[in-house]
Amino acid sequence: MLPGVTPVVYINGAFVPETEALIRVDDGGWLHGAGLFETMRAENGRVFRFDAHVRRLIRSAERVLRPIERSMLPTEGAIGELLERNRLHTARVRMTATAGSVRGDPSATEFPPLSVCVSALPLTAYPTESYERGVQAVICDYRVSPSDPVAGHKTTSYLPRLLGLRRAQMVGAAEAIWFTTQNHLAEGCISNVFVVSDGVLRTAPLETPVLAGIARAVVFELARANGIKAREEVLTINDLLDAQEVLLTNSIMQVMPVVRVEKRDIGDGHVGPMAKRLLLHYRELVQKESDLQPHGPVEN
Prior knowledge:
Number of strands: 15
Helix content: 25-40%
Distance between the termini: 8 Å
Radius of gyration: 20 Å
Strand content: 25-35%
Low-confidence stretches: 294-300
CATH architecture of the largest domain: Alpha-Beta Barrel
Structural class: alpha+beta
């Protein structure tokens, strides 16, 4: 945040100083982790694929929280105004929706109001060196269970993912890769995982389960547009370790090459051509879409 700028958040339909943003102590998100969130990247004052983020949150809410009407969530214009108020051009934007009060009348026929908050912070980009030289990943000690009702959804019950990521960072790795209880490749703590073998881009099917990543979908879109073979496929540890390339994707990192998993080099231990190609196309697409309808006066 710029010096002298008081951070502003959007909460329950209003813009307020961050220090004055409050939720109830009986909110289900605070008490039980009953909430969902979206982490988004803004360029040129515009969130990349904002509608896709909103649709994912609404879909997840129907499955694990409760139905959310589109009108309950901020518009793209409201996000643009939030960025303007915080004098941000490139930003990390987080939208959180939690269950609201859990002390309502059990006989009531209507749900209590949700708590919806959006914050925007200066984007802390991954180091250029990470893209040029690649990063290391480790295998997470934890497992994804297909019977977990929140698996595949971006919930505020995020502690296991943060613990896995912290363990990875303690040994100098950028990510910890999860497998399922059936030993199928799933995803990273904060990313989707792709492998490249025989020139084909592969990733775990959504029903594995894995998060329906926004960047994951963009990579499939870019593959189709550029003649790259890509498909969903049940993958194993051998598919990961024997891959020619391994890529991580999320909305902030975009496309990140992995050159080492545990003590095993991926391919020749250098960033491969697929990673370079997809990252270039991804950044071009972000620039193209962010130039369409830029929002207001902004500074970094």
